[in-house]
Write a structure and sequence with these properties.
The chain is of the alpha/beta class and about 550 residues long. Helix content is about 50%, strand content about 10%. The chain folds into 2 domains: about 300 residues, no CATH class; about 230 residues, no CATH class.
Amino acid sequence: MDDRVLGSVRRLLAANYELWHLDVFPAWRVRQFASDRGVPSLSSDSVENLWKSGLIRCDVLVSEEELGIDGLECVAEDDGQFRYCDRRQVLHREGGYGGVFELAREDMPGMELYFHPFRLYVLYHIQRVFAFSPSATQYLLYPNGLANLAGTHVEMLDKWTSRQSSADRFEYWNTVSELAICLEPLAYGRVFNQAARDPREMGKKRAKASKQYRKLANELLETVVVNDIERGRGELCRAAEVLDANKLIHVLLRLMAPHERLKLRGGLGGSMLFLCMAEIIRRSAEESLEIQLPEEDELGFGQWMDDARPLLYGTDRILDASPEERRDFLTSMGLDLGVKARCYVEGPTELGALRSAVGEGAGIQFVNLRGQVLARLGKGLSFREDLEGDRRSKAFSVVVLDGDREDYVRALKKAAQEGVFFGVFAISSPDFEFSNFGPDELLEVWLELASRDTQEPFEKPNDAIGLSETATSDQFSDYLKRNSLPLFEKSEAWGEALMAYALEHQQLPAGHAREGEDRPIVVLARQLMIARHAGYERSVAQFHVDAGTGKLVRKDE
């Protein structure tokens, strides 16, 4: 990175601080800001003393008098106030930095220091390097050991801070912060999903400065070596994990409303700020250099296995993902109420049964084909378009059809064969009732439902019902009519009653052709519940739909 261009950008921003989207803080507020984001242990005057010692640079210095301090470059003069850009270098002290605050006690009359929030990264390293953290039980174990430990700590710091490499590290940490600070106006809109400020709203002078800034920022990026960018970003991401190790939570939070991320406190708030810095650098470099760099969670501690990110997130680029891909990840974590699965049924009975078992909402939408799709021309063709829409929006499709609906069955199986459909389906033969229940069970449930509705008990006839599982609902209705029983009609209440019975007796009854197997309607209800929390792309990677059975089969089987 060309230090001269970096200096040009910093000078321009110091002179036109309105170009920053994040507010700069006076020194007295920095201590609280740092403490609120997991970097405590700073006294009320320590930030000023750190600046005086040269370990941290400020981003704007305002003085009532003209200053003649080496490294402070005057960038503007307004109404008797001088504005400076801090271009000082971190000094190598051969005797180390111990007691340096005593050498920097002179007052600063008429001077005010301002720091960009991204300077938190330098303060983080200052705390990390200088903090003395013995065991909480050291005093209880051996009080004199505290003095010994403190002496060893001082000796170690004296030795380290007296080296040139120590000054180089503080210079590097300041420079990493400054790279993010310089690129903040360039990438803020993309990182926080906000439109960039319209230069026309800033006035003619500020509009000119904004145009000049973009030119300089792009020139700066052209001088940066990509490996150096990744080194800095990697250190930012690892620092984020040191402050808070919940890496998956970091990803989730970065998908939330941007303004909410800025309100987070504690180590988590500091982590979000460091990841924001790394993302600002990445997005600026990607746009200016026309390259693609790893997202921030790839640069922290640990190593990603091949294809691990698509399996976890459903995509290689979760922060750049479409709303559908983001929703797929969020719903797999139980954090989104968008449509995760769409369930197609063929009438009120199936609708009532499945909706009573899994509920509507919380990621599941029901479509009554009889009430909606049949009203349209094209039928099977329209149904296929619905399934294609689910595939595009990454919603699981769950379908329940009667076997006599040949147009729909044909469209469904063809969609499964061609990969247009992903989910599960069940073809009821001869119909929903007799595919899931035995004749005696249907009669028992119907009479109980009818008795509940009429407040009048109905007894089961003494003679056998005389229907097999290959019968149809029409034949069941004829049987009721012959025996002067309440007339049968399909309804959501009927479906709810059947599902309540099925959940208490989940296997098909004795005498049924598939005796002992789980009822298909129970299997579908389970699949809908699973779909609420399953990752769509992970499922697509691991399973395929058997076009014959409608079940999901592992690809490695």
